[in-house]
Amino acid sequence: MTSSPPSRINVSALAIVSVWTGVLVVFSFWMSRQAYHWLPVQASTAAPLVDGLFSFETALATFVFFGVVSVMGWVVLFNRAEKYDTSDAEPVEGNTKLEIIWTVIPALIVFGIAFYSVRVNQKLAVLGPMEHIHRGDPIEEVGGFLGDRLPAEQVEVTARQWSWQFNYPDAKVSSTELHLPVDKPVTFRLVSEDVIHGFYVPAFRLKQDIIPGRAINLNLTPTREGRYRLRDSMYSGTWFSTNQADVVVESEAAYSDWLKQAATQPLQPGLSDAILEYKQRQSEGARGWPTVVPAPAPMVNVPGSNQLPHNG
Amino acid sequence: MTLASYDPRVLKSNAPVPGAPDNWKRFFSFNTDAKVIGIQYITVAIFFLLIGGLLAMIMRGELITPENDLVDRTVYNGLYTMHGTIMLFMFIFPVLNGLNNLLIPTMIGAPDMAFPKLNAVAFWLVPIFGVILISSFLLPGGPANSGWWSYPPVSTQNPLGNFVSGEGMWLTAVALSGVSSIMGAVNFVTTIIRMRAPGMTFFRMPIFIWTVWAAQTLQLIGLPALTGGAIMLLFDLVVGTSFFQPEGGGDPVLYQHFFWFYSHPAVYVIILPVFGIFSELFSCHSRKPVFGYKFVALASFAIVFLGLIVWVHHFFPSGVPEWMRNLFMVTTMLISVPTGVKVFAWLATIWGGKLRLNTPMLFSLGGLFNFVFAGVTGIMLATVPIDIHVNNTYFVVGHFHYVIYGAAVMGIYAAIYHWFPKFTGRMYYEGLGKLHFFLTFIGTNLNFFPMHPLGLMGMPRRVSSYDPEFTFWNVVASLGSFLLGVSIIPFLLNMISSWVRGPQAPQNPWNAIGLEWLLPSPPPAENFEENVPTVISGPYGYGTGKPLVENQAAYETQSPLEA
């Protein structure tokens, strides 16, 4: 198999390696296309940027992983010692040229990925979600919408153990279901009343921890109508898992109708699955260990729902 | 078994010697022999592996259905917290310290550790903080339940308000574990620097010694940060200081810096010696020298240096400024360069070798397979925009279980099988070993692969219930975890029965090169005693025919079985 001395160029070996590399390249490309299907629907301006980067790294990852596994597979199949062969193999102790190559090429690839990622980071920063700094790039160039720099719709988000509350200060409306107009930038002001929570909408590909004692701004632009999940992404105690809310992205007309309708509703307790579970748990004798008592349900105009089917 | 079949030095020793008759009780005593301490560490660690694994299986039982229906949510939160804590602080660090104790003195030709009593104290702290940690299950408030990161403020919420709380005991145990590890690190580093056999220059040390040296240097630099952070958090919890409490002017994110300044390097403390194990075993079982020895050795310290400047990648979404995100993304990605050097060197080592697919080699190859998978998902996690999406999801859980279980634990199993004959004087059963490997390899991938699609879909980690769209992959993962639970049975069966009645091991069953293989199996208490060999060549002379030490034949014929 590989017993031929390394100095002689083995044509058939070269052919095998070339064909196999070609197969791997095609397979890696195919995987990079598949990668989009592993992610939730794209519902914000950030999502295509993140997904593009993920698709690119999936291709690289596929090539590296299956490349290494191919070598391992070859060795395991063809370089096994005969049953009673106790002799040693050819003592190859190293090859400085090869070692420099496999240090420098990965380093270049890494810098390439890092450069691409920093670019995407900057675009995301222009779009708003990471940090609200003004940058030189025209907004259209980075795939944003013309409105991205305009004064955004303001929504105040309050996270508690364990419920989410959304206040619309301009419309004087509050809700436990987040409604957003499609293709309009929105600025969230994130505060927590107790512990660290995480504002995470997988369909938006965005996540921001909410640190108690700080108010953190997060900007984004939804791009797809639908009903999505907002999940608490930072462990926040007993009912962490139930700390979810629905995000409804709708047309601007539907959104303003919802706001008008909501403003006429009297305040009522909002959604809090934690409170329901807590009451049931106490009535069953509170097995398990002591827990922090859930905060009272926020008083809101519209509780909304978290039971309807969602798109991601 | 007759006494005549033992090396006379084994029998004359007052210390417990693995494999010698009638001395198992001595393993429960305060003993300063590194080999005894090594076996104490490994045995205690595997005991805690069983406990930690049991907790994991209950968690996977809960997660096999979307609803919260097996254990109360408070119990689930305690289970996942204790699973992580036990596995890291009471299984993986102790088991590696066990291997360090067995292998450092024997591989470098030292009679024992530099500070034998300190070594014993470091070990005996493990059962002490183990008891503290486990007994917190019995408190009225239950054990700690804020995750193994123990982020404030959630970790300082103390619903009962008792002075003694699960969280307080957890912090005490973690601080003690830090003290124990620092004691161990001082010992290992000093021993490696000061006590090598004559002729063993730094560039004649086995790669395992290089990697342990690198890893324990990291312990010394990083651990004070965690231990200090744990003590500050304990103060916040019990005496009402506000280092991390926003209402008192503290900053909860500061704790995250303290925690990850150590706990990221901790991953390298774990994986570096496993890299060393891979280098040793790939070389020995493919009968070829380690490819690019100097590059591989020095890459360990490159990893140490970079490992110290990547910690912020654990909390990219935690309100850190953009320049920090970009900086730490680049440093994190750069780690893949020295790591890649090691991976390529392993491939070049086995390439064209004469492989023997015995249990240690199978575990090494399986570990490498899993490690490369973990590596490519690691690059994705380092990339800030992708990390923002998958941070705190099951993608991260899948990634680090591939590192910790898929690579590190498989490497540790490989090491246990490889050196079992040396330190117990008995051979293990190859069939049971292979069964253990296949169950572990399939179980690991079945358990941890599904976590990646779950994380990409947006399933947060640490949940006790989830939306129904996540059900399929969770069922697969749970079945994998039960298979992993089963996989431990042939391992325990093999270890216990082989040690009790396995066939007696020859001095060098693998025909391996290394000072430890010039000692009898099991080695006497003081290893080479007065006859410390003089090393005259590099550590991996496979195929070169060069002897490792002066007068090698004299050492090779010492074993009564070979004589």
Description:
The complex is a heterodimer of chains A (312) and B (563). Chain A has a domain of 149 residues: Cupredoxins -  blue copper proteins (Immunoglobulin-like, Sandwich). In chain A, helix 2 runs antiparallel to helix 3. In chain A, the strands form three sheets. In chain A, strands 3-2-1-5-8 form a five-stranded mixed beta sheet. In chain A, strands 4-10-9-6-7 form a five-stranded mixed beta sheet, with helices on one face. Chain A is of the alpha+beta class and 312 residues long. In chain A, a hairpin with a 4-residue loop joins strand 6 and strand 7. In chain A, 41% of the residues are buried. Chain B is mainly alpha-helical. Chain B has one domain: Cytochrome C Oxidase, Chain A (Up-down Bundle). In chain B, 63% of the residues lie in helices and 0% in strands. Chain B has 17 helices and no strands. Chain B starts with 7 loop residues before the first helix and ends in a 7-residue tail after the last helix. Chains A and B meet through helix 2, helix 3, strand 7 and strand 9 of A and helix 3, helix 7, helix 8, helix 9 and helix 10 of B.
